[in-house]
Design goal:
Radius of gyration: 20 Å
CATH architecture: 7 Propeller
CATH class: Mainly Beta
Oligomer: single chain
CATH superfamily: YVTN repeat-like/Quinoprotein amine dehydrogenase
Number of domains: 1
Distance between the termini: 35 Å
Largest sheet: 4 strands, antiparallel
Number of strands: 28
CATH topology: Methylamine Dehydrogenase, Chain H
Strand content: 35-45%
Helix content: under 10%
Number of helices: 4
Strand order of the largest sheet: 3-2-1-28
């Protein structure tokens, strides 16, 4: 244990948070329960034996919307304009040099960009009676692309507003099939490793392209986490949080299938001023476990967790809050708060390719790296790009 890591009680944490979350805190009691990552190296640059890139949707206007990427080592950047606001990025495991950018909800477009040639390879619009929700993922073998969508019309057993999971050809990006998401407003979707079980974060919020991001069903919204067998298209299990106005939006999954859950609380529809959990975890067959929620920290997060990334071996999950200017970290097994890092308008979070660091990004074009064990920032790797405005999510890849 190094001398610059502080021990802290829950009461001390709350007291520190009350001064604006200006310093990092860490509980040494949690260290013993966490495994060190494999192949841990002290020097991030030496660990990256190939060129590592960070990618994200970028821009703050119709003229600047696109996808940007930067080399973590060489500090080089590139941007490809798209004319629509993107949300998340994913890669086909068979063709990792091609990135898919999904349009921000509610959107009608997704785009494939060739990396690093900076060329638009394909642009696809969804059907007239569907719209995207900003996320998608590939099957483990890369032979199918799944997209979170919604129906705009009543069609047989599918009702208007109902969540849909589109199944698309990985090469043409055209839809070949679809099935229900078993909820409204499916957002982030991911597979449990080595299974055909797709985990769907159904946010519960009804939106329409013609009304933008206006939430149309706040009084009746009901969020859930659904587990769907993509072979049979059948619901395996569904889980919900006690607070119906807590919208499950973003997820990440450990190798053993533990789901880290990031939520956004719809305070205007709740009718109360109670502190509501924004982070949780779930394992199939169990109830959702709400994490420890220090009141002052959650108040500063302003009911909004923007992204989540969980380390595969030390079981630490990072949650960003751009409204609270903070990234906070919990242990996914115990639900105990570990620490936080103050960072203006932080929303993007991912692991570096060597899984030695959490990478954070914000709308000011900045990227920071935190050591996954100590959660201390490696200030020598700070990056700032004046002409880039990183959007919600951050992704890493190597060439």
């Amino acid at each position: 244990m190094t001398s610059d890591i502080q021990t802290i009680t829950r009461r001390q944490f709350i007291a520190n948070a009350g001064i604006g979350l200006s310093s990092f805190v860490f509980s040494p009691m949690l260290l013993a329960s966490r495994q060190n990552p494999t192949n841990l190296k002290d020097d991030y640059v030496n660990a990256a034996n190939t060129k590592q890139l960070f990618l994200a949707a970028t821009g703050d206007s119709q003229q600047s919307y696109g996808m940007s990427w930067t080399s973590a080592i060489e500090n080089q950047t590139a941007t490809r304009l798209t004319n629509f606001r993107g949300h998340s990025v994913d890669f086909n495991p068979r063709h990792s040099n091609f990135a898919i950018l999904f349009g921000r909800r509610p959107s009608k477009q997704l785009i494939r960009i060739q990396i690093p040639n900076n060329k638009i390879d394909k642009v696809v619009s969804c059907e007239a009676n569907r719209h995207f929700f900003g996320h998608g993922c590939f099957s483990h073998d890369g032979k199918k692309l799944y997209t979170s969508e919604a129906s705009l019309t009543n069609e047989g057993k599918v009702k208007a507003g109902e969540g849909i999971i589109g199944v698309r050809d990985p090469d043409t990006l055209q839809k070949t099939d679809e099935f229900k998401s078993f909820g409204i407003g499916p957002h982030e979707i991911k597979f449990i490793p080595n299974t055909d079980t797709l985990v769907v974060a159904n946010g519960g919020l009804l939106t329409r392209p013609q009304s933008g991001r206006t939430k149309l069903n706040l009084n009746t919204m009901q969020s859930n986490l659904s587990y769907v067998d993509v072979r049979t298209k059948r619901l395996i299990e569904v889980a919900s949080v006690p607070e119906s106005k807590a919208s499950i939006r973003h997820i990440d999954i450990t190798p053993d299938g533990t789901v880290a859950i990031a939520m956004q609380f719809q305070r205007e529809a709740a009718g109360h001023n109670k502190t509501v959990a924004l982070s949780a975890s779930h394992r199939m067959g169990n109830d959702i476990q709400l994490f420890e929620q220090p009141e002052t920290l959650i108040s500063q997060m302003n009911d909004y967790a923007g992204s989540v990334a969980v380390h595969p071996t030390n079981r630490v999950a990072g949650f960003t809050s751009p409204k609270g200017n903070v990234a906070a970290f919990w242990n996914v097994d115990t639900g105990r708060i570990i620490g936080y890092h103050s960072f203006s308008d932080v929303c993007g979070i991912c692991l570096t390719q060597d899984i030695n660091h959490f990478a954070l990004s914000n709308s000011r074009g900045q990227i920071r790296l935190l050591d996954v064990i100590s959660l201390k920032e490696k200030k020598e790797y700070r990056r700032s790009y004046q002409n880039i405005r990183w959007d919600n999510h951050l992704t890493s890849m190597t060439l």
